């Protein structure tokens, strides 16, 4: 594509060089630059992309989009100056890849918990309904059957448009994606055309980045503020921020609830570890999920499918065949008669939801042993809250390492233990080695008990001092149970 076409809709401060040159690729990562590419220099949270302009040119960049022009300009390279490269990166990527989001129906899911489950279930449901689909999620991205590894909850705008364009080329009619607060705040989804948006819930998370809960909430709300009139916005009426999210949206607003009047309603008729019987909008359906929070997730999926034009009875029929997302309330039955559940819960609210779901099934007939930790170099304020939540609903708690990253595991554990009083500490032991912590839980468990291993879910690694070591909670549990 000619550079002039790429930048004609941008408010430029200045342009130095020719604009009739052919651009063969667009990138914000200088390491991915190839001959003929446009390099977009962004000011990141860790490093300033302007520092890598010389490297990008060395690798073959023929044009640079930047906020500050370098003092020394390379011969034969065009420099385009704008006020904010973050604001325009998504627009440039959208143009370069032929505006792929307008060629399929794109649905975004945002909120603290439930994004992965809802986006993945929508992807699985619509494939079972006979459509070609794409998925952009924390666990993995999919273009129909093809798995594309995911590094972030929401890719950067270049990668995002590239993946969407590949979905269009593959004949996808729908794409479902998680929209993280980081991605919204950093305008990674800028320029995309959404057919609909869903809000799950809002609890404390990512305050290491957003600093205040209000900033975090406003980042989520900005997604709905930007939806077009043609889109739908489905929000959780059971969450106190549910209606705040959609108060300024132009989209058609619909609500879902398990507790109050709403457009889409559900209640639990029966619950066991194999699943639940629900009543959704007056129709009964058996599902392979447990927990009230999963009823909310399934309602969001149901509502989105109906808003996308599917018949309610067809949606419920497919819903009855759907299975849990990997690492989300993932059960393993031991030969000794206890159950272990692996879950990604890494916020106080998510931990509360999972433990509630376990107690709903147990009905006081077994003990709960919880193994949990907290991630390093992330919001420290939630650490004592995580420990408090675990103790409140467990008979025994083992505090251990999660992904310590560049912190000392014992320091993270100490931060968690600081939230507990002497009485609560009687329920708690701390074991730094996560493998040993899981083994200990298995040794303590008796027939009818439930072990919850929380925090990592689908992850198959543990990040220590910048290195990812292979570690899979499910593998470790099976090993401890003697299951091959």
From TrEMBL:
Leader sequence residues: none
Domain Mur ligase N-terminal catalytic span(s) in chain numbering: 22-96
Residues of the Mur ligase C-terminal domain: 327-457
UniProt cofactor(s): Mg(2+)
Domain Mur ligase central residues, every copy: 109-305
NCBIfam families: murE, PRK00139.1-2, PRK00139.1-4
Descriptive protein name: UDP-N-acetylmuramoyl-L-alanyl-D-glutamate--2,6-diaminopimelate ligase
Annotated source species: Prevotella pectinovora
């Amino acid at each position: 594509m000619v550079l002039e076409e790429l930048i004609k809709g941008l408010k430029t401060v200045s342009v130095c060089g020719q604009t009739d040159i052919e651009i063969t690729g667009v990138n914000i990562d200088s390491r991915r630059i190839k001959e003929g590419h446009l390099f977009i220099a962004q000011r990141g949270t860790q490093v300033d992309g302007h520092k890598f302009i010389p490297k990008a040119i060395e690798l073959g960049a023929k044009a640079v989009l930047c906020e500050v022009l370098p003092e020394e300009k390379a011969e034969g390279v065009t420099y385009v100056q704008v006020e904010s490269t973050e604001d325009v990166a998504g627009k440039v990527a959208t143009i370069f890849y032929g505006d792929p989001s307008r060629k399929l129906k794109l649905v975004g899911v945002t909120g603290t918990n439930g994004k992965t489950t809802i986006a993945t279930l929508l992807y699985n449901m619509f494939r079972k309904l006979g459509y070609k689909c794409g998925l952009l999620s924390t666990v993995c991205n999919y273009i129909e059957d093809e798995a594309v590894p995911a590094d972030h909850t929401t890719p950067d705008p270049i990668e995002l448009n590239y993946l969407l364009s590949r979905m269009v080329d593959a004949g996808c009619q729908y794409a479902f994606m998680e929209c993280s607060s980081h991605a919204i705040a950093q305008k990674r989804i800028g320029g995309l055309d959404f057919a609909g948006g869903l809000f799950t819930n809002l609890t404390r998370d990512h305050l290491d980045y957003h600093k205040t809960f209000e900033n975090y909430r406003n980042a989520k709300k900005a997604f709905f503020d930007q939806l077009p009139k043609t889109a739908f916005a489905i929000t959780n009426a059971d969450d106190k921020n549910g209606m705040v999210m959609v108060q300024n949206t132009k989209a058609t607003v619909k609500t879902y609830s398990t507790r109050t009047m709403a457009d889409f309603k559900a209640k639990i008729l029966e619950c066991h570890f194999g699943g639940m019987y629900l009543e959704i909008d007056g129709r009964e359906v058996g599902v392979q999920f447990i927990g009230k929070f999963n009823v909310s997730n399934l309602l969001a999926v149901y509502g989105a499918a109906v808003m996308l034009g599917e018949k309610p009875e067809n949606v419920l029929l497919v819903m009855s065949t759907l299975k849990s997302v990997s690492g989300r309330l993932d059960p393993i039955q031991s030969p000794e008669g206890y159950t272990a559940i692996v879950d990604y819960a890494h916020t106080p609210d998510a931990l509360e939801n999972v433990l509630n779901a376990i107690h709903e099934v147990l009905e006081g007939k077994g003990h709960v042993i919880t193994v949990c930790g907290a991630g390093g170099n992330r919001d420290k304020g939630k650490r004592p809250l995580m420990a408090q939540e675990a103790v409140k609903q467990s008979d025994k708690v083992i505090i251990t390492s999660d992904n310590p990253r560049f912190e000392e595991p014992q320091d993270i554990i100490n931060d968690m233990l600081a939230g507990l009083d002497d009485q609560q500490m009687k329920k708690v032991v701390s074991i730094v080695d996560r493998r040993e912590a899981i083994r200990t839980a298995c040794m303590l468990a008796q027939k009818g008990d439930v072990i919850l291993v929380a925090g990592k879910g689908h992850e198959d690694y543990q990040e220590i001092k910048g290195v990812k070591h292979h570690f899979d909670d499910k593998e470790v549990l099976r090993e401890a149970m003697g299951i091959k």
